[in-house]
Write a structure and sequence with these properties.
This is DUF1963 domain-containing protein. The longest helix is centred in the first third of the chain and has 19 residues, at about 60-80. This protein is about 40% helix and about 15% strand. About 35% of the residues are buried. The radius of gyration is 19 Å and the shape is globular. It is α+β, with helices and mostly antiparallel strands. The chain has a 6-stranded antiparallel β-sheet with strand order 2-1-6-5-4-3. The protein has 10 helices and 6 strands, in the order αααααβαβαβααβαββ. α1 packs antiparallel against α4 and α4 (about 60-80) packs across α5. It has helices at about 5-25, 35, 40-55, 60-80, 80-90, 110-115, 150-155, 160-170, 190-200, 225; strands spanning about 95-100, 130, 160, 210, 250-255, 260-270.
Length: about 270
């Protein structure tokens, strides 16, 4: 999945930000010139999205916002296969998905930067982070996380074999409580696993994988599919603070460490 040329990337990122602002109820201006300069492939996607946006009635406001949200999801899915996979797999459950640059020999510092939201995705791809603009971050800046510092982070993680990391990512598509269809018994099980594999392939064939799941303490290839999300215990990275009416009680994380990027994938149990 190669990066687009800079002009195309600028136009795609600009429209993504514009749609996200509209979806969030904010009206922001955008400059048309970057769209005109976009190369053909990116230009077609931008033109398609702008045409769809123009056709959405502005009133009633809640219907407009809802339709813009649907347009944003489709726009992001069309932008690249990685976006499409992450939205299919992990958009509905309570998850955190973010990628940051690899800048340190000790990758724990790069993971810490992702958890604290101090770096952006190097490719401008999808980030799943429903708490990014939440009021809870005024109390706990890394909410929902209260992660150990970089010097202690490795001590809370265990290495995973690549296929075990795929399975751990796949079960994040489940709910922590009352899951009616565990991935292991779903008719689209292979499709779920394929999406998880697509996400981890981003970080390269030499990527290493880590988890906070305690089952990996004695085995780098635990059977996450058999256990399911609810049956997976972990060293929690979550805050114990009760904020926004939520108790955070369980979590499962997978960290992918490549030569150029680090990826953080987290499932969060809350009630």
């Amino acid at each position: 999945m190669p990066l687009p040329p800079p002009a195309e990337r600028a136009a795609l990122d600009l429209l993504d930000a514009h749609l996200e602002a509209l979806w969030g109820g904010r009206e922001v201006p955008y400059r048309r010139e970057p769209f005109r300069r976009a190369p053909e492939e990116g230009g077609e996607l931008v033109r398609w999205a702008l045409d769809r946006l123009r056709r959405i009635p502005r009133e009633p406001g809640d219907a407009f916002t809802r339709q813009v949200g649907g347009l944003l999801t489709e726009y992001r899915s069309r932008r690249c296969p990685w976006n499409a996979a992450v939205l299919r797999l992990l958009e509905d459950p309570y998850t955190f998905v973010a990628t940051g640059p690899r800048r340190h020999e000790d990758w724990a510092y790069d993971v810490d930067a992702v958890l604290h939201r101090s770096v952006a995705d190097p490719r401008g791809w999808v980030r799943l982070d429903g708490d990014r603009d939440g009021a809870a971050r005024h109390e706990v800046p890394a909410y929902p996380f209260d992660p150990p510092g970089p010097s202690e982070l490795r001590g809370r993680l265990y290495p995973l074999e690549a296929e075990a990391a795929v399975a751990a990512l796949a079960v994040m598509a489940e709910e922590w409580q009352g899951e009616p269809a565990p991935v292991r018994s779903r008719p689209d099980r292979e499709g779920v696993l394929a999406d998880a594999r697509t996400l981890l392939d981003r970080y390269g064939p030499g990527a290493r994988h880590w988890t906070n799941a305690t089952a990996a303490a004695s085995d780098p290839a635990p059977d996450f599919l058999a256990a399911g999300l609810h049956g997976t215990a972990s060293h929690t990275f979550l805050t114990s603070a009760y904020l926004d009416g939520l108790d955070l009680y369980e979590d499962l994380g997978v960290i992918a460490v490549g030569d150029d990027e680090v990826g953080v994938f987290w499932s969060i149990g809350a009630y």
